[in-house]
Amino acid sequence: MNKKLAAAMSGGAVLMLVLSGCGGDETDEKAGTWAKKVCDQWQPELKKIETANADIKRVASESSKPEDVQKTDSAAFGTMSESYRTMGAALQSAGVPPVKNGAATQAAAAKGFESTSKGYADLKAKMDALDPKDQPKFADGLKEVAGGLQEATKGGQDALAQLNAGGLDKAINSQKGCQVATSSAAPQ
Fold this sequence. Notes:
This protein has six helices and no strands. By secondary structure, the protein is mostly helical. It has one domain (28-177). The two termini are 15 Å apart. It comes from Streptomyces avidinii.
């Protein structure tokens, strides 16, 4: 069952891999400066998310005991929750992006990251509440957790869509700090 959770988590990892696109045309200098502020703060968080996803996939691919699955997945969800919260705060601290409707774009994107942070905190709480000694109930609980992953990542996906729609995609994608290794994601 944890393999389904890992597959769903890999889908969540794709959320951040949207940022790994190549920079294209020259970007507006002001937008580039703003994006650098954001991406420099995002880089450590993207690495933490990537590591957390790898941990979930690792424990799912091994014949792990339920206790190990619970401990690993709970820690990963906690890390992701904190990372997405930090990413939303980084958007706010970078100032209003220099694009049309920049304040609205910034606010909507930050709200999306906060939503994903809360979603992962909720998944962590559900994971912590599972009883690994009761394997049938534990397996059912994992199904419920896996089912909540799509909802948990929706806010972050919406945040990226807001930034892209706001015209910041090229500026963000051109920043090294927002690029992550695409080899960590597996197709669903």
